[in-house]
Amino acid sequence: MQRSEPFSRVRWIWMNGQLVEFEKATVHVFSHGLHYGSGAFEGIRCYQTPHGPAIFRLPEHLDRLAASCKIYRTDLPYTLDELTDAITHTIVANEFDECYIRPLVYRGLGTLGVYPGKCPVDVAIGVWPWGAYLGEEALRNGVDVCVSSWRRAAGSTFPSLAKATGNYLSSQLIKMDAMANGFSEGIALGVDGNVSEGSGENLFVVFRGELLTPPLAASVLPGITRDSIFQIAKDLGIPVREAVIPREMLYIAEEVFFCGTAAEVTPIRSIDRIAIGEGRPGPITLQLMDEYLGIAKGRIEDRHGWLCRVEAKATV
């Protein structure tokens, strides 16, 4: 099997209760999830810290996975404690000190009607090394993005509180639209024309010294990183709140940045070729980035108990 570079070092994938060799971790072509997007997943990071590998906010991620499954009437076949053990076991088995973690719950081989209830619920956990989502240069210098022509779906169509696999067809359109026009990423508006989020990131703006982010009702995913930035901002005495953000506020904001498990904290230097602020990462963005990554990587005190040490012993 030809492997792309991100997966070249992956040896084991956890599937339905056991570790499986990378090449044997397969699903049937008639799996319901492949045809209809019937699945839920998480994106989690494990960071190398001075005290060993540690997973950032693992319980919160697994709580959100369980919530996504509940919204889609999917019975999760493992407890969250069992999934915690499975994740740490998979990291240790692959001998990673730092990695991205992808738990996936999906409807497997059963029937191929739209109704998923007769299909088994399968669970897989993969881990692999993954650097900065939009590139290391993006963290230093910021990215150039556009407002996408594709909008986020209304909450009465696809529930945005669920991190469901099918929801990311919308994200693919936003990302492809942006890249086809020479941008690194796209920002989607909601059905009301106000700002929602990126293709795979939440978004914050600094406007008149205040940190703002769209509310959950704006068809945004309840991001774990988004919540972390909220808490860190409060710790640092930075005013922060949810607010409806009109598109034009993006252009006149002092700072704008993406945040998410993959994107971490990524500054935005221009939107629709309009420079944001001075066209480079701003002081509040950089302060929040340094604090967030400092906690995640163990350089700053974990004052909120966000890190889960990886101490499992792997047997394969």
Give the secondary structure arrangement, pairings included.
Blueprint (H helix, E strand, L loop, with lengths): L11 E4 L2 E4 L10 H5 L2 E3 L2 E6 L2 E5 L1 H14 L8 H14 L5 E9 L13 E8 L7 H6 L1 E5 L20 H13 L4 E5 L5 E4 L3 E6 L2 E4 L10 H12 L4 E3 L4 H6 L2 E6 L3 E8 L2 E2 L7 H14 L10 E3 L7
Parallel strand pairs: 8-9, 8-15, 12-13
Antiparallel strand pairs: 1-2, 1-7, 3-6, 4-5, 4-6, 5-17, 6-7, 9-10, 11-12, 11-14, 14-15, 15-16
Explain the overall architecture.
The chain is an alpha+beta fold. It folds into two domains: 5-128, Aminotransferase class 4, branched-chain amino acid transferase, N-terminal domain (D-amino Acid Aminotransferase, Chain A, domain 1, 2-Layer Sandwich); 136-281, Alpha-Beta Barrel (D-amino Acid Aminotransferase, Chain A, domain 2). Helices cover 27% and strands 27% of the residues. The protein is built from eight helices and 17 strands. The chain has helices at 32-36, 58-71, 80-93, 136-141, 168-180, 224-235, 247-252, 283-296; strands at residues 12-15, 18-21, 39-41, 44-49, 52-56, 99-107, 121-128, 143-147, 185-189, 195-198, 202-207, 210-213, 240-242, 255-260, 264-271, 274-275, 307-309. The strands form two sheets. Strands 8, 9, 10, 11, 12, 13, 14, 15 and 16 form a nine-stranded mixed beta sheet that branches. Strands 1, 2, 3, 4, 5, 6, 7 and 17 form an eight-stranded antiparallel beta sheet that branches. The longest helix is centred in the N-terminal third of the chain and has 14 residues, at 58-71. The radius of gyration is 20 Å and the shape is globular. The two termini are 21 Å apart. Residues 312-316 have low confidence and may be disordered.
